[in-house]
Design a protein that fits this description.
heterodimer; A: alpha+beta; 60s Ribosomal Protein L30, Chain: A; Phosphoribosyl-aminoimidazole Synthetase, Chain A, domain 2; four-stranded mixed beta sheet; 13 strands; globular; B: 2 domains; four-stranded parallel beta sheet; 15 helices; metal-binding (chain B)
Chain lengths: 341, 371
């Protein structure tokens, strides 16, 4: 879906903006340099020069989302939070980002500015800087409005967080109610005409992770539950660490709005994507303290202990219903499609 | 204002579920034989497996997962129809939900979409009207699937297309009927089913009376049940009570939505535009007479099967020989009795009908069972 603001008088990105000449220079300077202002970017060298010290985490992600603007965020916020969160989940302080834009010809400049502004505000939350970037403009029809790629590096402050490190007896904690990003995007898409206060959970997780690191707690595994949701993270962990994981359905926090959407369309909250909610495996003894820290410093006050790691049913995740029956919590399969009736 | 929680909380109350389970246990222990309950509808299969209700029942109550999943019962040749239609120049193929995941003989609709075919999954059939209006230069084909529940929506779509003169909208009708499917299952002398949970959203449209012939013909209790865990457990209890009393009656547990006669207005719309198809081949069950619908001749100008008949000349395509879906649908076999279950046949690459959709028995077993 393209952005709807299309007044004849409005300025739009043209192919010449990607041509490397004057127009491109103007675009870069007036929008990107202005929003991301920092000395490394301003030096305009062929590559950013960084001083890295010790073990460093490095990650990359490309962002495409339809619609580009959704309740609770936009593609810009997502592009920064996504990469910053990947670094944070490795116990790394997000320091430097690269940022590449692939823009479809005709894309409204005003929308681009709005997206870049929300990137800048998200960067500010974790003190992260965009130090290099690239802009390409492709002919109309060759991209869906705007694609963004960000890569990031960060100094590891808390080593040994790994999908391989879950241990029997660990508590599984979720940092907030699940499924809000996936639900907000589904609602905003054409076809599902619903009105709701539902907002994406899209958020920069570094501030809360920084507090967890400052408290010097033991973290065995930590991962943001993006595509594939809670179900995907738990299954990946169970398989990578060769352990079993059990979760209690009644303990998993889900907002009424997300529940409602799931009831209507036949989705499961644990299959829906999150963009500011993460899962931790920590020793049982400190679990309630971890929940307290997350609730004090995070965006939602709904963090909860939802289950534990076990030394049986290796590689599998088991969900217990409120009436005591059990079933596998499987990986979500294929694209999410509404049920038929 | 009513909150969502209030709407379903009572139907998922652990205490109520435990109490029902206990009463079922007590009463079923007094019944000398097995109670083999067919839940005809895939929605019930999903409820039973998702909420683990089978784990709460005594050993002499078994579920037989019936043929009530419209995606699962679609034979490969008709999925091929959809793919062929979608491959025609200037055609947009529109269909419901996870139909696009199911493989035909040359791939699924999702794969054809990836190759450039314009295939659009929708939730509300009336969205097809908008697509047709927005693309007047294209031929838009609605690949209509579903049981009695979803047929009225197709009928209304035909009506709207007629009334508004949307002439670029065609239909490929695959609507099927519940009672002939029950008859097909029961026709097998080896069939072990001796009670039914009746599909309830079907009954909202067609009325509970739809099942009277089955009650009389097979002398089995039929309880029309809602889709929440308490609904299903209460319906099982009612079945057990009937079995103990030796009765075979039609009973409506889902009384908050189902009446004896159903939605007459919806039935009238369906009859206005659609008629009984002499024969339809069901995946897993084979050809079943009078078990599906087709467009009435006066709407032949909207019938994609007729208009594209030369292209749709596809022979019947059977499932893999090792597939036991037919036996599973009749209650003669369980998914785990099948040699290819979970090995050659998985949700990612299903060999047979019961594995294809989340409402299919094998798919539900694969995902949820075996803990």
């Amino acid at each position: 879906m393209s952005v709807e603001i299309k007044l004849p008088t409005e300025k739009a990105v043209q192919l010449s903006h990607g041509g490397g000449g004057k127009e491109m220079n103007n675009l870069i300077k007036s929008i990107f340099f202005k929003a991301f202002a920092n000395p490394i970017l301003a030096s305009e060298e062929d590559a950013a020069v960084l001083n890295l010290d010790g073990p460093t985490a490095f990650t990359t992600d490309s962002f495409t989302v339809s619609p580009l603007f959704f309740a609770g965020g936009d593609i810009g916020k997502l592009a920064v939070a996504g990469t910053v969160n990947d670094l944070a989940m490795m116990g790394a302080e997000p320091q430097y980002l690269s940022c590449s834009f692939i823009i479809e010809e005709g894309f409204a400049i005003a929308s681009l500015k709005q997206i870049v502004a929300s990137m800048a505000s998200e960067l500010h939350k974790s003190g992260t800087r965009v130090v290099c970037g690239d802009t390409k403009v492709v002919p109309k029809g060759c991209a869906d409005g705007l694609f963004i790629n960000t890569s990031g590096v960060g100094r590891i402050l808390k080593p040994h967080i790994s999908v391989n490190h879950l241990q029997p007896g660990d508590a599984i904690i979720v940092s907030g109610d699940i499924g809000r990003h996936g639900a907000a995007i589904l609602m905003a898409r054409e076809g599902l005409n619903l009105e709701s206060d539902l907002r994406s959970d899209c958020a920069n997780l570094w501030p809360v992770v920084e507090q967890l690191i400052a408290a010097n707690i033991t973290i065995h595994a930590m991962r943001d539950a993006t595509r594939g949701g809670l179900a995907a993270v738990l299954n990946e962990w169970a398989q990578a660490s060769k352990v079993g994981i059990s979760v209690a359905e009644s303990q998993i926090p889900v907002s009424d709005e997300v529940k409602g959407l799931c009831e209507l369309y036949g989705f499961e909250p644990h299959d829906l994507a999150n963009e500011g909610t993460f899962i931790l495996a920590v020793p049982q003894t400190i679990a309630s303290g971890v929940v307290e820290i997350i609730n004090r410093y995070g965006d939602s006050q709904t963090a909860a202990i939802i289950g534990q790691v076990e030394d049986n049913h290796h590689g599998k995740v088991i969900l217990t219903t409120p009436w005591g029956s059990t079933r596998y919590l499987d990986l979500p399969q294929g694209e999410l499609l509404p049920r038929i009736c | 204002m009513i909150e969502l929680n209030q709407l379903y909380q009572g139907f998922r109350d652990p205490t109520t579920i435990h109490n029902l389970a206990r009463e079922i246990q007590t009463l079923a222990s007094q019944y000398p034989g097995n109670i083999n309950i067919m839940e005809v509808c895939g929605g019930h299969t999903h409820t039973i497996m998702k909420y683990g209700l089978n784990q709460l029942l005594p050993a002499n109550i078994e579920f037989v997962h019936g043929p009530g999943c419209p995606v699962c019962i679609m034979p490969k040749e008709r999925i091929d129809h959809a793919a062929i239609l979608a491959s025609q120049p200037e055609v947009i193929l529109v269909t419901l939900g996870d139909m696009i995941r199911v493989p035909g003989s040359k791939g699924s609709l999702a794969q054809f979409r990836a190759q450039g075919c314009d295939i659009r999954p929708i939730y509300d059939p009336l969205d097809t009207l908008t697509i047709a209006k927005e693309n007047p230069e294209k031929t838009v084909i609605f690949f209509a699937i579903g049981f009695e529940t979803s047929t009225p929506m197709t009928a209304v779509l035909i009506e709207q297309a007629e009334q508004q003169g949307v002439n670029n909208l065609l239909f490929h009708i695959n609507h099927v009927l519940v009672p002939p499917a029950i008859d097909a299952v029961m026709a097998d002398p080896k069939a072990t089913v001796n009670a039914f949970i009746g599909p309830s959203h079907v009954s909202v449209i067609s009325g509970a009376k739809l099942y009277r012939p089955a009650v009389e013909r097979y002398h089995t209790p039929v309880v029309v049940a809602g889709f929440e865990p308490v609904d299903v457990m209460e319906s099982i209890l009612r079945i057990v009570k009937q079995k103990l009393a030796g009765t075979a009656e039609l009973d409506v547990q889902y009384s908050r939505a189902v009446s004896e006669d159903g939605n007459l207005h919806a039935q009238q719309k369906v009859n206005q535009y659609l008629m009984i198809r002499p024969q339809f081949r069901w995946r897993g069950l084979g050809p079943v007479a009078n078990s599906a619908l087709m467009l009435r001749p006066e709407y032949a100008h909207r019938d994609a099967e007729r208009i594209f008949s030369e292209k749709l000349n596809v022979a019947d395509i059977d499932d893999h020989k090792a597939c036991q879906c037919g036996d599973i649908l009749r209650g003669i076999a369980k998914p785990k009795d099948c040699k290819v279950f979970g090995r050659g046949c998985t949700p990612e690459s299903p060999l047979g009908s019961c594995m294809v959709s989340s409402e299919g028995a094998c798919n539900a077993y694969y995902r949820y069972n075996g803990v």
